[in-house]
Every structure is written in C-alpha cells, then in structure tokens.
Amino acid sequence: xxxxxxxxxxxxxxxxxxxxxxxxxxxxxxxxxxxxxxxxxxxxxxxxxxxxxxxxxxxxxxxxxxxxxxxxxxxxxxxxxxxxxxxxxxxxxxxxxxxxxxxxxxxxxxxxxxxxxxxxxxxxxxxxxxxxxxxxxxxxxxxxxxxxxxxxxxxxxxxxxxxxxxxxxxxxxxxxxxxxxxxxxxxxxxxxxxxxxxxxxxxxxxxxxxxxxxxxxxxxxxxxxxxxxxxxxxxxxxxxxxxxxxxxxxxxxxxxxxxxxxxxxxxxxxxxxxxxxxxxxxxxxxxxxxxxxxxxxxxxxxxxxxxxxxxxxxxxxxxxxxxxxxxxxxxxxxxxxxxxxx
Length: 342
Known about the structure:
This protein is an alpha/beta fold. The chain folds into 2 domains: 7-96, no CATH class; 109-338, TIM Barrel (Alpha-Beta Barrel), CATH 3.20.20. Helix content is 34%, strand content 17%. The protein contains 10 helices and 16 strands. The longest helix is centred in the C-terminal third of the chain and has 23 residues, at 246-268. It starts with 6 loop residues before the first helix and ends with a strand.
C-alpha cells in the first residue's frame, strides 16, 4: 500500500469488506446499516463520510464519481483513497464523501505539488527557453498517461491555506511572459487533454507585436478558464540594484507592481492575484511590497515542489528547458517527500 495510506483507511476498508460480505451472503443486495441497493441493484453501505460499494465489470473511477459524488472530475478522490487507477469486478471500493487530508501530511512524509514553468514554444527548440512543440506535447501526454492531475494555481493557493485537498499527483502548469506561441502550440494540446494553465504576463510586452499576446487574446483565455496573472511591468529584477538609491527603488517597485494592477482592472476586469517574480528574484522588501500591492501570493524559481506549508509569497516553480529529455522532465514531477514524522 502507498506510504500515504492511513490506519483509518484500513479500518474503513475492513469494515466495508465485512458489511458488503454480509450483504452477499444474505443472498443479494439488502439494506445495510446506513446503506441500500442503488437503482442498478448495486450493494452499498453509507455513512456521513464514506460510501462503500462493489465495482462491476466495466466500472471506472469516473463513472463511480459521477454516480455517487455527482461529478466525474472527482474520480481522483476514489483513486487516491483506494490507491488504484483502475477497478476490477467484485472489488470493494471506498468512496470518500469529503476531503480526508487537506494538509497532505502523512505519517511517512508529505505531499508536494510541482509547478512547472514554460516560456516560449516553437516548431523547433531554440536556446534554453524555446521548447520544441513536439517535446512539449510529449511532456503533456506523459502527465496524462501517468495519471497526473493538472490543477489551477488558485487550487494550489487554497491548498496552501488548508482549504482544499489536492489530488496526490497534482501538478500546476505556468507560462511566462505572454508569447503568442502559447495559442499556436500549447493551447490546442492543453484543450485536447483537458488541462488548465496560468499565464504570467508583463504588461509592457502585451500587444507589442506579432510574437506577443494581446489583451483580447488574454481576455478570451480567461473566459476559457485559463488564469492570467502578473509578471510586473517591464520584467526587471525587483530587488534593489547596486547603487540604486532606496527612494528610487521604492518608486520603481510602485511602477512595476501597481501600474500593471490598474491595467489588469481596465483590460480584464480584475487585478492580478498572483505575481511571478522576474528571474525568481525576491527579498523581504519585495515580498512586503508585493503583498501591499494586492497580490495574494508570489512565485519564485526554485526546483522543488510545494508542500502545504510553503510560504504564500515563496511558492516554488521548476523551469522546463528545451534541452531536457523526457527523463529529465520526469525528475521535476516528485509529488511526495518521504520524511517520517515523529
């Protein structure tokens, strides 16, 4: 069993086997304690926290999630709780009705959520930051085939506030700067795979030419469910530079952080909620000014996933470079830190 399994899960599973076994030996579906056969004649037992049923031939976790939880997208709850991705006929299945571990902290360690960072995409790789379209699609299909769940940045933010449990193989996708290539190469792949993503744009670049996304593009993407967030005004390092007077640094921070917020309000109808620090650079002064400018969280560049206790203004991201092989890419997908808690 996965090291994240809890003793309580074993107890519920054991009780499920006993109760469902009792139903079976009684000669078919019967009313159990807190349970009843469903309209398909399927045996089940229920409590306020769980539903326990028996999988039939051809059942999928998505079908059970739709039937019992009302939403096929909650299939991950069934998969994670039972430590399965497929179901066998006759298998007892525990269906949690609500989150059971929002913190992602277990006796054997804690959950990590990788945030992957892309920049430009082209027909062929070019330099470190322009990844080839074929390699990008291969990476996305690897996520899908290996049961990673792409969640939104807002979902991650709520996880960091202990307000949302995430799938144990959750991943966040981000794209920096606002390149038009996102529409040509990334968007079709993401839509086909039902993945979401966040675009971080610096406002001086938006709409500046054929290689840049315009405000109408960004508005359409938000309607489709993609997030568009802040990356400052000019993409300059927000930290105080050598020889830069303190007063001038404060003035520059206001321009880099507050100006874009007004533009977001005007062009997208709301301010940006999250900020990706250019070059990942942020010190305590930058963190304070970011928060004071109305951002809910800030993202750095640090090659490690995020536990639920990562500081909101120090969210980590892993940059994906064009020279990475698929094996290199996989190294950025660690979703669990094994660390026995005493």
